[in-house]
Design goal:
5-stranded mixed sheet; 3 helices; globular
Length: about 90
C-alpha cells in the first residue's frame, strides 16, 4: 500500500462531519493525522474491505472506544473520505 499523503472528501462525508460533536471532530483530526503516519498505528485497526464494487475501500477506528469509524477510498496516495459514522453504520454501508 502506498503511503497516504493527502485527503479529499465527498459531499456525504462533509454532511456527516458537520453533525459531529466538537469532541468527535478532535478525535477525527487525530485519526487523520495517524493516517498520514508510516506505518499507521495498529490501534486504528486499519482494514481493507472486501466484496464491494470499489476494491479500494478501507476503514479505521476514529475513537478509542471503537464507537465511530471512518471509511475512505485509496487512489494512489490520496484518501477520498467517504463516511464518518458509528461503527455499525459503517459496517452496513461504508
Amino acid at each position: 500500500m502506498a503511503r497516504i499523503r493527502s485527503f479529499e472528501s465527498t459531499a456525504r462525508f462533509q454532511r456527516e462531519y458537520k453533525k459531529l460533536s466538537p469532541g468527535l471532530k478532535r478525535e477525527l483530526k487525530a485519526a487523520l493525522e495517524d493516517l498520514l503516519a508510516d506505518p499507521i498505528p495498529r490501534s486504528r485497526r486499519f482494514e481493507k474491505l472486501e466484496g464491494y464494487r470499489n476494491p479500494n475501500i478501507y476503514t479505521i477506528h476514529v475513537t478509542t472506544n471503537h464507537s465511530h469509524k471512518l471509511s475512505f477510498a485509496l487512489i494512489e496516495d490520496r484518501a477520498i473520505l467517504r463516511r464518518i459514522a458509528t461503527h455499525s453504520e459503517i459496517d452496513r454501508n461504508p
